[in-house]
Design goal:
The protein has about 325 residues and is mostly beta strands. About 0% of the residues lie in helices and about 50% in strands. It is built from no helices and 28 strands. The strands form 7 sheets. The protein has a 4-stranded antiparallel β-sheet with strand order 1-28-27-26, with no helix packed on it. It has a 4-stranded antiparallel β-sheet with strand order 2-3-4-5, with no helix packed on it. The radius of gyration is 19 Å and the shape is globular. It starts with 7 loop residues before the first strand and ends with a strand.
Length: about 325
């Protein structure tokens, strides 16, 4: 089933888009941020407000960002009395204050204690259970947990044998990461000396690029490999063997995003210009022993006019999904 055309709203930016984020504040829940993807130092981040009455995007704020932002996240709490902050990653982790008429740099966080330079940060996740904590992944094989209130490093771990490409919190003190070494590893900060490998890419020497923990049902973790058309769903209670493989994309998958609230749906998007929405009907009862979980069909799908680089499900309204495709931001009402 394809999303109806009247439920798709498009904003065209003057530059290609990669990173995107939804606001979580209850007073600005239809606000989004998009980041440019330009191969030079001068990049942009734009904050947009979608007007539900006019069904149009209102360009709100535009500010400069050094290098292309690899990820964006608004302050992960709904209460509008909290500081209005957005975090970005790239050469450093940066925090920015959002004002009515401007965005002001609050802090630049460098996890390299021995140098003013930092290895590139590939991604990060801001903990909604403890808003003082942001976990970052880096090409230098490390994962760093920041106390962003104190602007200090809480923990820094050599997490993988190769570059770490993505990171996702699974609960207090627990996060997962994926790497060029082809593994999904789970870390518990109460025991920093060891990690648990819950999945390894069966294609030798092939990196895993994306990982997202299901925040509503922490039994499940999704991951995507390089040049792969599959989304691998892992049940952490039964690691190594995938709980499900979603393989209906016709080209490489670039991004995944779990639905909020129930956690029974996941959206994947890729180079086949499609965003597929999958429904996990069997998360409570499980599949019968020997049952085939590799032939699942998407519940809904949307086709774009170009490759889809990123996807984000609204964290506060399960009816809305945002995708980035070339220079277009599209939000889909599903």
């Amino acid at each position: 089933m394809q999303s109806p055309s009247q439920g798709v709203y498009t904003y065209t930016a003057p530059w290609p888009i990669y990173s995107l984020a939804w606001s979580i504040r209850h007073d600005k829940k239809y606000r989004l941020a998009i980041g440019s993807s330009l191969e030079d130092y001068n990049n942009k981040i734009e904050i947009l407000q979608f007007n539900l009455d006019s069904l149009n995007f209102e360009s709100h704020l535009l500010f400069d960002h050094p290098f292309a932002p690899t990820n964006l996240m608004f302050f992960p709490f709904q209460d509008g009395l909290n500081p209005d902050i957005i975090a970005t990653s790239g050469d450093f982790l940066r925090l920015w204050h959002i004002h009515d008429d401007r965005v002001e740099l609050k802090s630049v966080l460098n996890g390299n204690r021995s140098s003013e330079f930092s290895s590139a940060i590939t991604s990060f996740d801001w903990a909604d259970f403890d808003v003082s904590r942001i976990a970052t992944s880096s090409v230098d094989t490390t994962c760093t947990v920041w106390d962003v209130e104190k602007e200090t490093v809480d923990s820094q771990l050599v997490a993988h044998d190769k570059e770490v490409y993505d990171i996702s919190w699974g609960g207090y003190n627990v996060f997962a990461s994926v790497s060029g070494d082809g593994s999904v590893r789970v870390f518990d900060l109460r025991n920093k000396e060891r990690s648990t490998i819950i999945y390894e890419n069966p294609i030798g020497e092939s990196p895993l690029l994306r990982v997202e923990w299901n925040k509503c049902d922490p039994r499940f973790v999704g991951t995507v490999g390089m040049d792969s058309n599959k989304v691998v769903i892992i049940d952490i209670r039964y690691p190594i063997t995938p709980w499900m493989e979603l393989s209906k994309h016709k080209a490489s998958v670039n991004a995944i995003s779990w639905a909020p609230v129930a956690g029974r749906n996941i959206c994947s998007a890729g180079d086949d210009c499609r965003a597929l929405i999958w429904e996990m009907l069997d998360t409570d009862v499980g599949f019968p022993e020997g049952g085939d979980r590799s032939d699942a069909e998407p519940h809904l799908w949307f086709e774009s006019t170009a490759e889809i680089n990123n996807v984000r499900w609204s964290p506060v309204d399960s009816e809305w999904i945002a995708i980035a495709s070339l220079n277009k931001l599209q939000i889909l009402k599903v």
